[in-house]
Amino acid sequence: MKLYATALLVFSTVATAKSNDETKPINPLLLSSPRNIDHSAKYINLPISPGKLRENLQNHASGPQTYGTGSKPSHLDRTLADYTVPSRQEIGIGGGISGNNQGVKIYAQFKQPFPDWLQSITGLTKWPDENAPYIPLDDIDLSVVPKIPKRSLGDCSNVERSHCSFECYRCVAPDDIITCPVMSQTFDDGPSPSTPKLLDQLPIKTTFFTQGINVVRFPETVRLQHQEGHLLASHTWSHANLPGLSNEDIAAQIQWSIWAINATAGVVPRYFRPPYGAIDDRVRTITRQFGLVAVFWDKDTFDWRVNDRSKTENEVYQEVRQWQAETPGALILEHDSTIKTVNVGIEVSRLIHSKQMTVADCVNGPWYND
Ligand SMILES: *[C@@H]1O[C@H](CO)[C@@H](O)[C@H](O)[C@H]1NC(C)=O
């Protein structure tokens, strides 16, 4: 409990903007990229003021940085949103948990700058919040979209079979992807503060369905994913239930997620996974215009349930072994949003212990649109 309090102190020191905090300088030895995190190290508490943090970031703006704290606070299992400093929105704060000693590292990275080309397309000067505005584009025609009613999440009461909803009827369109010739993991919702650990320990190339709002918050992590040969794909801008939105808002969720990945890693995504698997032919008519292929899954780990302990890690591993006995190939749904689901992902990759494919390679398709 004492160690928790030490770690919490760092979080709260960062989170409250006091101009004149007493701070020690950061030990440069503690600065590192996530790749170089020593997972066995235990770090001492090293309070830092927002001003010092900013100064330090500006002097070493090339990458994420690590600075010390005490031991593992249980709230590190929450999502990255908890660590973003509201008054310093250009800086994302992430944490990672190291090996046996469970020392905590916090690294900060600059939010992705809003590029000039995007400013000229949108007329805006910064990334939007979760309610991204629709920006009309010449090659997107919403007048051809079929008139299928909006519906809220989980409401399948008036959904016609002909609308081809995946979440209500497991309906897939001919151009949708649902499986893979070999057992292959996929990770939704990130990047998060826990993603660097996954990148560190995953022995295979995988597919990341990212939320645009997280992409611009953790651009260094996204570039690392790209550099290390993983496939970057879209999971919308802010995890929207697409069938519940207007045509314009669906287009906004898609266009901003594409722009975020393009601005950050310089690639234009070709694959997207609708949050909750929620889709119908109204949504597809819009997403296809952006050149996107919809990707689902045929094996669900429900790994997010380990977060509230309504499912155990061992139950996940049992099921994966069962799938391996039943079938040579599958697309497995996982999440890189918390340290618990990341740990499960690492263990599942060891269980599968064979060649996996990215979604693009599953269908022998291009990795990106140009
Ligand atoms: C991708 O980024 C480049 C600039 O690097 C820009 O010219 C291009 O329009 C962008 N494409 C999309 C689809 O966002």
Automatic annotation (TrEMBL):
One term of GO molecular function: metal ion binding
Signal peptide limits: 1-17
A GO cellular component entry from the record: prospore membrane
Cited InterPro entries: Glyco_hydro/deAcase_b/a-brl (IPR011330), NODB_dom (IPR002509), Polysacc_deacetylase_ArnD (IPR050248)
GO biological process: ascospore wall assembly; carbohydrate metabolic process; chitin catabolic process
Keywords associated with the record: Carbohydrate metabolism, Chitin degradation, Cobalt, Hydrolase, Metal-binding, Polysaccharide degradation, Signal
Entry keyword annotation includes Magnesium: no
Reactions mediated catalytically: [(1->4)-N-acetyl-beta-D-glucosaminyl](n) + n H2O = chitosan + n acetate
NodB homology domain mapped to chain residues: 181-365
PANTHER family: CHITIN DEACETYLASE 1-RELATED (PTHR10587:SF133), GLYCOSYL TRANSFERASE-RELATED (PTHR10587)
Record-given protein name: chitin deacetylase
The organism of origin for this protein: Sugiyamaella lignohabitans
